Structure formats: C-alpha cells, structure tokens
C-alpha cells in the first residue's frame, strides 16, 4: 500500500514537472525582446528587373513591433562597404503576444518608379560586368525600444 502511494506521489510530481517544462517552452516563444528568424530568401542571384524577396518570422510578447526594421548591407565587391537602412514597420492593431511574417521585397530595375537604391549602387567588376555581392543583416526594434537579435542572409549576387 505504501509503495502504491509513493508511486502515485512520484507520478504527480512527474506530471507537474512535465507541465512546468511545457509551459516554460511555450512561454519562451514570446519574449519582451522581439525574436526573428529568417524564413526564406527567394534567390541568391538577382538579375536586372528581378525581385529579391526576404521573408522573416517575428514574435513579440507585447505585440508592439510596429517601429523599425533595420537592414545592413555588407558588400564584398569592389570597395567593401556596409550600409544600414531603416524602414518603418507599418502600424497595425495588436493585442498581446504576436506572431507575424515580415515580407521584404526589392525590385532590381531602373524602370520601376519606386526604384530602391539600397539594392542597386553597383560597381564595375574587372570583366566590365556590373555585379555586386554580399549579404544582409536584419533586425527589428519594437515601440519600447527592445531590439531583436540579428539574422543574416546567405551571399546574394546582384547583377
């Protein structure tokens, strides 16, 4: 009889510990500091008149990521340089924990009225082709000025 009571107590303790562990794992998904993950990059080579599309998954405990997205372009070609550009994250209603997808799209073409110099600014290579290569570092800041970690794309060649 005592052995059965002891087993029951151990089982109850095990269930409580498992429940706490599951709750802790779930809780880690949403933190005050925004969390970002690189979900996809549509290509590693962007030709003239093509699109570069970067998709991020973002979570935030307070749901207040409607502040700023930062992108640092680290270039290898010609004179290596780093350029940081800030983008305003659109305002949208949110209450509490938030899981969202951020879709970043750049068009590599001069015939676009919304031409974005962030993707262009090419330098001539030795062969005379206009190409540039490097990668992007991306992070977000929420309204409370909490800053996420940085994600990094693979190397991208822009023609």
UniProtKB/TrEMBL annotation:
Q: Which organism is it from?
A: Filimonas effusa
The name this protein carries in UniProt is DUF4625 domain-containing protein
Task: Output the lineage of the source organism.
Answer: Bacteria, Pseudomonadati, Bacteroidota, Chitinophagia, Chitinophagales
The organism's superkingdom is given as: Bacteria
């Amino acid at each position: 009889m005592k052995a059965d009571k002891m087993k029951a107590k151990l089982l109850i303790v095990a269930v409580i510990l498992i429940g706490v562990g599951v709750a802790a794992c779930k809780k880690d998904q949403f933190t005050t500091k925004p969390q970002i993950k690189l979900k996809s990059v549509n290509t590693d080579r962007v030709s003239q008149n093509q699109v570069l599309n970067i998709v991020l998954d973002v979570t935030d405990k307070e749901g207040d990521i409607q502040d700023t997205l930062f992108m640092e372009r680290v270039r290898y070609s010609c004179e290596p340089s780093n350029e940081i550009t800030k983008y305003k994250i659109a305002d949208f209603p949110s209450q509490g924990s938030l899981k969202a997808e951020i879709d970043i799209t750049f068009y590599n073409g001069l015939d676009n009225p919304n031409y974005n110099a962030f993707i262009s600014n090419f330098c001539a290579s030795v062969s005379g082709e206009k190409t540039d290569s490097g990668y992007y570092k991306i992070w977000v800041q929420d309204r409370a000025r909490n800053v996420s970690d940085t994600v990094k794309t693979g190397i991208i060649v822009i023609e």
